[in-house]
């Protein structure tokens, strides 16, 4: 796979994640919406840690702040925090199977949700901690698709 | 491994400092407003793509609906329109009478409103930020602070205007507050958003306040931002919490905040050209 094609895939994946994030959802289903952009960050860092690291997580976090219209810096903080975990564990994660990675993704998304809600509550925004696991469950359900796609890209890249 | 860990932690700390710096600047200043406006403008094509599933759903609904059902609906809408026109004539008569009485009392003339139909083109994906994008902007005369409604009641107000689209803050956003009054007795209060699409709360009402479950709330017009008399919601529950000075009053918004696709922009005669018409 050429470098040009590889970078194009990364850019398209981020655009697609932004589009999926922006699809209008009713209030009842909103807590179930996966954090597609965070999943892409975890995915690219897990499978390509030499190319995508903390700076990449910070950049996508900034992009997410703009997409979510959240206070600038909030998702930079969250994504850097969460992205650091697969970056530090990347040497091992690649040898895990998809179920193990699902478990890790579930824990990371739960942690990210609680941290995000905590940050909002510091600013006085009412938050519902009970909704956090819902987003984590839906994220884990779609993770195998992302995992499979990234494994294929990783194999072609080698 | 340890080299990677230490350099990673250093990077993480640097980005944390940057992130907290950005959040502090965002919280205390509006230095980032130009970046946010630029992002809003650039994100519009992505919003357009994200709305494709909804458009397909609408198109499929239309295609799959039987012709006879559409004809029946058309007939029902025509009948409804006739009824509303009749009611509007009565309203016009009442408005004229009201104006005459106000003139007799030397009171100021009430502003007349006109409306412009608009469509939702994007919704904030964050549960904490209740904003949406609409397809009307500067070219249509939209302005910051302009109220928006749906068929049921007040939805919110415009906070950013671009050439051909705008961003509106909904009344359920936790940063939003609107002056309201109880329709039954005219008692005034402030309704604040709670980040819940189905709930807003009334603030600073003492336990002796004359308010009941089911009371209808309308905009009071105080502050001059929202025109008076538009439905805001109805009182869902009233709680007296031990040790708290004021009642906790939950209100169900009248507008279908998370479902309405077509909205109305309200222009009062103060705003200029549009006066007493629908576009």
Question: Could you explain the architecture of this structure?
Answer:
- The complex is a heterodimer of chains A (158) and B (279).
- With 158 residues, chain A is mainly alpha-helical.
- Chain A has one domain (3-157).
- In chain A, 75% of the residues lie in helices and 0% in strands.
- Chain A has helices spanning 3-22, 36-47, 54-68, 74-93, 98-122, 132-157.
- In chain A, helix 1 packs parallel to helix 3 (54-68), helix 2 runs parallel beside helix 6 (132-157) and helix 4 (74-93) runs antiparallel to helix 5 (98-122).
- Chain A is globular, with a radius of gyration of 15 Å.
- Among the domains of chain B are: 1-31; 177-253, Rod shape-determining protein MreC, domain 2 (Thrombin, subunit H, Beta Barrel), CATH 2.40.10.350.
- Chain B has helices at residues 2-28, 33-42, 44-50, 52-64, 67-104, and strands at 113-123, 131-134, 147-149, 154-161, 166-170, 177-182, 188-196, 199-203, 216-219, 231-239, 248-253, 262-268.
- In chain B, the strands form 2 sheets. Chain B has a 6-stranded antiparallel β-barrel. A 6-stranded antiparallel beta barrel of chain B has the order 6-7-8-11-10-9.
- Residues 271-279 of chain B have low confidence and may be disordered.
- Classes of the chains: A mainly alpha (158), B alpha+beta (279).
- Chains A and B meet through helix 1, helix 3 and helix 4 of A and helix 1, helix 2, helix 3, strand 1 and strand 7 of B.
């Amino acid at each position: 796979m050429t470098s040009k094609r590889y970078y194009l895939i990364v850019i398209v994946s981020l655009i697609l994640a932004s589009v999926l994030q922006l699809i209008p959802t009713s209030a009842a289903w909103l807590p179930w919406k996966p954090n597609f952009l965070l999943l892409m960050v975890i995915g690219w860092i897990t499978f390509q840690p030499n190319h995508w690291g903390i700076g990449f997580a910070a950049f996508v976090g900034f992009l997410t702040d703009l997409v979510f219209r959240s206070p600038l810096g909030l998702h930079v903080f969250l994504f850097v925090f969460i992205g650091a975990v697969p970056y530090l564990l990347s040497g091992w994660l690649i040898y895990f199977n998809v179920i193990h990675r699902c478990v890790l993704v579930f824990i990371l998304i739960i942690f990210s949700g609680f941290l995000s809600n905590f940050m909002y509550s510091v600013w006085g925004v009412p938050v519902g901690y009970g909704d956090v696991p819902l987003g984590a469950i839906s994220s884990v359900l779609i993770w195998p698709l992302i995992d499979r796609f990234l494994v294929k890209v990783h194999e072609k890249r080698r | 491994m340890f080299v990677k860990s230490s350099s990673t932690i250093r990077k993480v700390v640097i980005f944390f400092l940057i992130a907290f710096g950005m959040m502090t600047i965002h919280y205390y200043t509006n230095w980032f407003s130009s970046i946010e406006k630029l992002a809003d403008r650039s994100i519009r094509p992505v919003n357009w793509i994200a709305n494709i599933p909804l458009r397909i759903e609408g198109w499929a609904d239309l295609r799959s609906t039987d012709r006879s059902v559409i004809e029946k609906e058309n007939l029902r809408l025509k009948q409804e329109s006739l009824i509303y026109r009749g009611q509007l004539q009565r309203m016009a008569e009442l408005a004229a009478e009201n104006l005459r009485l106000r003139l007799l009392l030397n009171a100021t003339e009430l502003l007349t409103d006109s409306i412009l139909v608009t469509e939702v083109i994007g919704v904030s994906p964050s549960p904490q930020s209740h904003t949406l994008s609409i397809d009307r902007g500067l070219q249509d005369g939209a302005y910051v602070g302009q109220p928006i409604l749906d068929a049921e009641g007040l939805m919110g107000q415009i906070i950013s205007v671009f050439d051909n689209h705008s961003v509106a803050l909904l009344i359920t956003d936790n940063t939003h507050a609107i002056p309201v009054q109880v329709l039954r007795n005219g008692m005034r209060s402030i309704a604040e958003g709670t980040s819940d699409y189905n709930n807003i709360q009334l603030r600073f009402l003492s336990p002796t306040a004359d308010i009941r479950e089911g009371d209808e709330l309308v905009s009071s017009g105080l502050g001059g931002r929202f025109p008076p008399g538009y439905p805001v919601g109805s009182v869902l529950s009233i709680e007296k919490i031990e040790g708290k000075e004021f009642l906790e009053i939950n209100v169900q918004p009248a507008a279908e905040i998370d479902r309405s696709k077509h909205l109305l922009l309200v222009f009062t005669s103060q705003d200029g050209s549009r006066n007493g018409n629908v576009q």
